[in-house]
Design brief:
Number of helices: 5
Largest sheet: 3 strands, mixed
CATH class of the largest domain: Mainly Alpha
Strand content: 5-15%
Bound molecules: zinc ion
Number of domains: 2
Structural class: alpha+beta
Helix content: 40-55%
Distance between the termini: 55 Å
Shape: globular
Radius of gyration: 17 Å
Length: about 130
């Protein structure tokens, strides 16, 4: 099945480009709608598969916020997120990773802490108006 390979690579590139072009942390479904503008024949399953692959490669990250549908982030660096409780949108928080938190947790529970995920929640500026 060698013939399919170049096309899959191209699809993967488009998916990665589209994900990196937005800051909205789309779900796979939302990204599928976006990618379809450029690749009308792509399937949702293909988008899923490629997102899993890109996540495994550390090129993007999968984020789980509010225990809802998984979302994807074109920024693979560790960073914090804030979710609007009104409209459900997820934004990046422009704040350096709090290193001291890992140390406190380590002291408290005796674990060697490798990293952490923090999710903030609130009401976004648009919804506050
Ligand atoms: Zn909002
Ligand atoms: Zn993010």
């Amino acid at each position: 099945m060698k013939h399919g390979k170049p096309r899959i690579t191209h699809q993967r590139e488009v998916i990665l480009e589209e994900l990196k072009s937005v800051r909205t942390h789309p779900s796979a479904d939302e990204l599928y709608d976006q990618v379809r503008q450029r690749l009308p024949r792509i399937s949702l399953a293909t988008v899923y598969r490629n997102l899993e692959f890109l996540t495994d490669q550390g090129l993007v990250q999968k984020i789980e916020v509010g225990g809802r549908q998984k979302r994807f982030d074109g920024n693979p660096e560790e960073h914090y997120h804030i979710r609007c409780l009104d409209c459900g949108k997820v934004d990046d928080v422009d704040l350096d990773r709090i290193q001291s938190l890992d140390k406190s947790i380590s002291r408290t529970c005796g674990y060697k802490v490798i990293g952490h995920r923090l999710e903030f929640m609130g009401i976004c500026p648009e919804c506050s108006k």
